[in-house]
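Give me the fold.
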Amino acid sequence: MKTIELSSGTQYPLLQSRDVRIMTSTTASELALDALAECDLLMIHTANSVYSFSLTDAKERCGLLMGGRLGEASASALLVGAQGPESGEAGLCRTRLIAGMPAVFIVASKRESTRLVTSAIKSLTHLKALFGRPRMSEGIADQP
């Protein structure tokens, strides 16, 4: 597992807070879902697509999903977990995303919710915003 610390020099649309000082990026083949926090961003690289999932409620694993079958549109979604080789609930892992297994989301629309299953995950990138902490290169926090 590789961790990179980056300065958030430019503001990203999903990260509008002035308090964002550092963003860490971890690329891995497996990700524990209880490690997610609000404002985190997941980049899910699958066999056929790339998805981004921005968490708005980490406890419920809700957020905005883009990419893959959704294209450039975003949709409210619930991250369920990874689908193993067994079909249905028997093969569903609700605690982590794992390379080689598809990710499972429940995507909300105005009339109904739909189950979206990605192709097999190739890699996961977890971007974590750290709020109000000093920049590593400077050793001190910027003044507002």
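The radius of gyration is 16 Å.
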